[in-house]
Amino acid sequence: MDSIPLQTPQTKLFPSIVERLEALKYSKRTEESYIQWIKRFITFHDKRHPREMGSAEIAAYLNHLALEKKVSASTQNQAKSALLFLYKEVLQRELPPMENLTRVKADKRLPVVLSKHEVQAILSRLDGSMWLLVSLLYGSGLRVMECLRLRVAEIDFDRLEILVRDSNGYKNRVTLLATSLVEPLKAHLQQVASLHDEDLAKGFGEARMPPGLANKYADDSAALTWQYVFPSGKLSVDQQTGAVYRHHADEKTVQRAVKKLAKQAGIHKQVTPNTLRHSFATHLLQGGQDVHTVQALLGHADVSTTLIYTQVVNTGSRGVASPLDVI
């Protein structure tokens, strides 16, 4: 059978995918990720149109990722989700179960955790908005993208709380705000407000609304309330609509900064922004916090995910002191 061109007046595959993703309020990041996985899937199968393929081809591609590319379990699951979305939501096909699928086993390694001294060594080498951002990663247990996606309205100074929205806008949680960050954060938001005023004066200033709230608060999209707490240094043009937004800061900048500063501090561990979140959880448990409280702050659906930090809390084997330390 001859392959079908990826885009013809009849198919228009990728515009249809984008349209469906936006209709279901998927985040821009998820949209970009799904598009890339679908393109890789099509390329892997010699650019055949997805309508010609099905469960067998999806399984073959996922096995390729597992056995040849050696991807992680989360990466394989992301690719699978993108392809199942394509068939169910765009092509509107119910696929039979995938046979002979090789599933990547989840990594059972313990998370890398910093000591309080190591956290301080990193923070002491920062200043300005980057210091504030990294302090929030550790002080509130945020993932880097959760921190970058924070809006002004999601910080409650009176209750010392931060509302963390799920990437798709449906599963939200509340975490704590460190008292020591209140005044620095208020000062930072004054700078954000000034930047927003400049954008408004130039005829811009509208924000891309959080998924799930776009229709409800569409008329307030230019309010300071919905601006990012850590805005980008430049304006961006939405390729689909042509609208001009000020997006949030780039996560790669944060990743590079944390890695570089950990090295400068002489920390010989694989440190990423997420290491600060792991450290937040571990230090709370070390301080006597209940595991279910930590679970809620981290947003884990299952407490078993949080329990892994209890293994990090214990020193030595099962928390038993070495006899060498007591002679």
From TrEMBL:
UniProt-recorded name of the protein: Integron integrase
Keyword set includes DNA-binding: yes
Record bears the keyword DNA-binding: yes
One Pfam family in the UniProt entry: Phage_integrase
Domain annotation Tyr recombinase: ranges: 109-322
InterPro entries (alphabetical): CB (IPR044068), DNA_brk_join_enz (IPR011010), Integrase-like_cat_sf (IPR013762), Integrase_catalytic (IPR002104), Integrase_integron-type (IPR011946), Integrase_recombinase_N (IPR010998), Integrase_SAM-like_N (IPR004107), Tyrosine_recombinase_XerCD (IPR050090)
Family: Belongs to the 'phage' integrase family.
Keywords: DNA integration, DNA recombination, DNA-binding
Every Core-binding (CB) domain range: 11-91
